[in-house]
């Protein structure tokens, strides 16, 4: 249950939320568990965590702090092409990684996966650079509209096929700063 106080504090944004799906505590608990799993699996491998700006900002920050071993972080930024190429998952890299990933253990950290087209495209791009390993850690999985099956080594939560905001997820750049995750009201879409 989300506290009335928190809802009140975030009222200017929360007014557009139809239903809270995950509280800050639930998110933190799950991210801590994911951090423990990554820590166990990547000990001694100096992994590079790669995220796509901007939605992954909160998840990446919390996940990194839940991994108490040597680890590096880098970011990509993408822009979708036109609506029809977008539906095929083609994206343009507007900011590439700074790191050379060949021979590195890469953990691709993503906030949400829906059709899987975006992630699939980015994974192929990274795979071509010949990392030693390439795995995926996703916080929110919306499996109902999946078009491409992508193995997800670490997964936080399954979500219904609804448009959600908060904890980094936006609608037209807003609501990222909500500390909980909720379904956006149709009237705000
Ligand atoms: P996919 O290519 O269909 O998997 O789309 C993934 C991208 O769509 C994510 O990286 C998000 O930017 C965006 N997205 C998908 N579902 C949601 C949502 O419920 N809220 C906010 N953004 C979403
Ligand atoms: Mg994203």
Structural class call reads: alpha/beta
User: Which residues form runs of ≥5 with pLDDT under 50?
Assistant: none
State the end-to-end distance: 25 Å
How much strand?
A: 25-35%
- Please tell me what the overall shape is: globular
Largest sheet: 6 strands, mixed
What does the model show?
By secondary structure, the protein is of the alpha/beta class. The protein is about 30% helix and about 30% strand. It has six helices and nine strands; from the N terminus they run H-H-E-H-E-H-E-H-E-E-H-E-E-E-E. The strands form two sheets. The chain has a six-stranded mixed beta sheet, with helices on both faces. Helix 6 links the parallel strand 5 and strand 6. Helix 3 packs across helix 4. The protein is globular and about 50 Å long. Inosinic acid (IMP) binds next to strand 5, helix 6 and strand 8.
Keywords:
189 residues, alpha/beta, six-stranded mixed β-sheet, three-stranded antiparallel β-sheet, globular, binds inosinic acid, binds magnesium ion
């Amino acid at each position: 249950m989300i506290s009335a106080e928190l809802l009140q504090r975030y009222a200017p944004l929360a007014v557009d939320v139809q239903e809270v799906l995950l509280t800050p505590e639930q998110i933190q608990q799950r991210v801590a568990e994911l951090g423990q799993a990554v820590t166990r699996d990547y000990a001694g491998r100096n992994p590079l965590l790669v995220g796509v700006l901007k939605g992954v900002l909160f998840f990446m920050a919390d996940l990194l702090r839940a991994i108490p071993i040597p680890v590096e972080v880098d970011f990509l930024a993408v822009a979708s092409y036109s609506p029809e190429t977008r539906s095929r998952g083609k994206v343009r890299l507007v900011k590439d990684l700074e790191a050379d990933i060949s021979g590195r253990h890469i953990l691709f950290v993503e906030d949400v996966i829906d059709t899987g087209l975006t992630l699939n495209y980015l994974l192929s791009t990274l795979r071509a650079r010949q990392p030693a390993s390439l795995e995926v850690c996703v916080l929110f999985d919306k499996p109902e509209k999946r078009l491409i099956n992508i193995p997800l080594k670490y997964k936080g939560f399954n979500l219904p096929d609804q448009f959600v905001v908060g904890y980094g997820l936006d609608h037209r750049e807003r609501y990222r700063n909500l500390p909980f995750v909720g379904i956006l009201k149709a009237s705000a879409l």
